[in-house]
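Sample entry (317 residues):
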Amino acid sequence: MKKFFSKLLLFIIPAIIIIFTIVFLPPSKSFQKSLFYSLIDKNKLLENTPCPRIIFIGGSNLSFGLNCQMIKDSLQLNPVNTGIHVGLGLKYMLSDAEKYVKENDIVIVSPEYQQFYGDLANGEIELLSTIVDVSPNSIKLLDYKQCYSLIKDIPMYLKSKVDGLINKSNLDSTIGIYDRKAFNSFGDVYIHWKLPKEKVNPSGKIEGKINDDVFISLNKFRDIVNKKKAVLYITFPCYQDLSFINATIQIKEIERNLKSYAFNLLSNPERYIIPDSLIYNTPYHLTKKGVDLRTSLLIEDLKRCSDIRIQKLRLLK
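Predicted structure, serialized as tokens:
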């Protein structure tokens, strides 16, 4: 038996050493160029953007779906678009943003519909890469459910680190739509605004069971926002028309649950159905015309639901 455990240790210890060595390899230059490093820039925006402010929290339905200059011009508030990628998980997005919320902020949360089902809200490999390579200190923001959920992504993450070490390709100086530099000074992706739309196959029914933990996390976040004397609204994301039809049952279930928690909803889901002609390259990403349409709808909803508050914030300038 002792010989067995000795042999087992001889196998386990080198394996652990190899894994930790790979984890602490520096990220590839191509990854350092990626949109995930925009987390650093967006947190600086949250820290330094002066009041009165409007903060948007969500995934790429925001980064590829807002024109914050329109919001600033119309509402005379300073917008910060924190949207990066759905794979970071809504729970991490909320935890990362909460420390930056200030008195009188208007906070708008716009989660992708898939965040409410299964374990997506806990984060996927994109979150694992972010907390290891981009923002190691943010590991303290994760709860045990998020940590457990990320275990399945460790092999793929290790493979990506090794691939990045082996494949040292020359970096293209062109700024791609998923690069760190694809974001403007508000946090909007703008590189694709002059590009033609691509063919986008609609998403199907949202799989999995609804995740009650997501609503609990949103409720806790609302308590934090309220204690800071700010206000929280939830808006539904822009979504391709055909994808919406395929997931209508799940989307209406999300709406019912949000109402049961008495969240301040800016609208109903149907308002943000976007025709396929205005969809760029995924069901949540919009062309420039689609971005402007979604932004206009959001401005109208904010004026209707929070006009008095907006007027008071303007007086604080």
